[in-house]
Amino acid sequence: MNAIEPQTRPASYIRRHPERKSFSKIRTFVDLPSLIEVQRRSYERFLQMNIPGAKREPQGLKAVFESVFPITDLRETCELQFVDYAIGNWECKCGTLEGSHNLPSHCSTCNATLLHDGNLTRSLECQECGTSNRIEVLCEECGDPVCLQHKYSVRECQEKSMSFSVPLKVTFRLVIWDKDAVTGQKSIRDIKEQEVYFGEIPMMTERGTFIINGTERVIVNQLHRSPGVFFQSNNERSEFMAKIIPYRGSWVEYEYDLIKH
After folding, report:
1. Of 26, 39, 57, 83, which sits with the fewest C-beta atoms within 10 Å of its C-beta?
2. Pairing between strand 186-202 and 210-212?
3. Is 128 in contact with 114 (CB distance < 8 Å)?
4. What pTM value is reported for the model?
5. pLDDT score recorded for residue 45
6. Which residues on neighbouring strands pair with residue 216, listed in sequence order?
């Protein structure tokens, strides 16, 4: 029995999706909205990676750092302060020009804050007035502007079982105080500021998903128990239970029973 040879396709063949036909009697006047736009905008507000550091609002990732820092020691002679954070490696193709500060931060027409993504060309469009702002700072070697560089693409991460992520770098400031033993007044002895590699943070794809170890995953919303103290009793067994649920950290449960003599 002869094997069936696979059907050959020409080199110019392009796979197209079939045309969608509607058999409904009621005409649609509004297009179907993007159902993943809510997730994408929510994650963008959490990271604020396309907004300059001075223009970021105290929410999302910035609010998390500000709620933890500053950190002081027990003797209050050292204080670690949070300054700013940077997400991803912003550089040109050859790597000579680095830093997202080389991009324009304000629109030349309406002076609004420009939101820049990783796919940049020679211009940056304002989301408020639609003006195309030309990027003046270009690399002298390759002639390209600064853009967000990914080590691997989404498809390469899926094939190599890797995570689609970018590095998170945080700038900290260490302040060392001199404390007077008599008056208790403090004076600054030394200040050091340094950018520290904090880890990898996953990036959301255009489909609203994350690539973790080569697997495509999504975020599932869950209900969060309200913090506080809750009491519960069991009349049949004469048992009483209390739960202390903090805003952060582990839950604490107490059980107490009544012993009848």
Report:
1. 26
2. unpaired
3. no
4. 0.65
5. 87
6. 211
DSSP of 89-122? EEE-SSSSSB-GGGS--B-TTT-PBP---S---S
The vertex-182 CA angle with 180 and 187, nearest 5°, equals 20
Q: How far apart are CA 140 and CA 9, in angstroms?
A: 45
**How many residues in total does the chain contain?**
261
Q: Report the share of the chain in percent with pLDDT over 90.
A: 10
Return the DSSP state at 2.
P
C-alpha to C-alpha distance for 107 and 123, rounded to whole angstroms: 11
One-letter amino acid identity for 153? Answer: S
Query: Cα-flanking dihedrals φ and ψ of residue 192, to 5°?
Result: -130, 135
Residue for token pair 């702002």: 133
In angstroms, the Cα distances linking 30 to 18, 22, 35, 115, 234 are 22, 14, 14, 28, 55
Residue 120 is predicted with a pLDDT of 57
